[in-house]
Specification:
The chain has 209 residues and is α/β, with parallel strands linked by helices. 20% of the residues lie in helices and 21% in strands.
């Protein structure tokens, strides 16, 4: 069992990001059994959900002539996904939620996207997770979920900047992997950023018996 000041974070483990969903991450469903093996090792866990209204600003369909993965004023445009109240926006039904103590819904403001569990994408509007974690005395966050290079990575980066110890459990995450520079992807770039900030990378076998 991990220390009582440790917590497992499940970031956007939703069918909308899995094969058959609206914004599928390759092999995204494979995180579910890994996370379920990890959960018994933690006394505490939190989860996040992408929770968008129809017509959200980040949807390509909200902008005439734009396609998914186009960029508009710094915002990557996505297929419609994570629609609030839909079955695909729920936490995956196979996840054991008995240790999940709080669920943070993000991206519900129509004109503001949110990748991080801690801040909306304006980088100032807080979700309230930091205050909840501090009041409960948590010091180290183990991250899992979807996607490594967006919501998981941004959450881990913000956690590091807020002073938490951070561990990213690599086989409990999957990434989108949009190509960036030659021979690199957004996964490569995110892992480099996190490593420079002091993030540790582990596999579930290091934790789960």
């Amino acid at each position: 069992m991990q220390a009582d000041t440790d917590i497992l974070g499940l970031v956007d483990v939703q069918p909308t990001f899995m094969p058959g969903g609206e914004l599928p991450v390759a092999d995204g469903h494979a995180v579910v059994p890994v996370i379920n093996r990890l959960l018994p090792r933690f006394a505490h866990a939190f989860a996040t959900q992408d929770w968008h209204p129809p017509g959200h600003y980040s949807f390509a369909s909200s902008h005439a002539g734009k396609a998914p993965f186009d960029v508009l004023e710094g915002q990557t445009l996505w297929p419609d996904h994570g629609l609030a109240g839909s079955a695909n926006a729920a936490i995956h039904a196979a996840i054991d939620q008995t240790r999940i103590e709080v669920v943070i819904r993000k991206g519900f403001r129509p004109h503001l996207d949110s990748y991080s569990a801690f801040f909306e994408n304006d980088r100032t509007t807080a979700t309230g997770l930091d205050g909840w974690l501090r009041q409960r005395g948590f010091k180290r966050i183990f991250f899992s979920g979807l996607a490594t290079d967006f919501c998981v990575g941004w959450s881990a980066e913000d956690a590091l900047r807020l002073g938490y110890e951070v561990v990213l459990i690599e086989d409990a995450c999957r990434g989108i992997g949009i190509p960036t520079s030659v021979g690199r992807t957004t996964i490569d770039d995110m892992k480099q950023r996190l490593g420079a900030l002091g993030c540790r990378f582990m596999t579930s076998s290091s934790l789960a018996g």
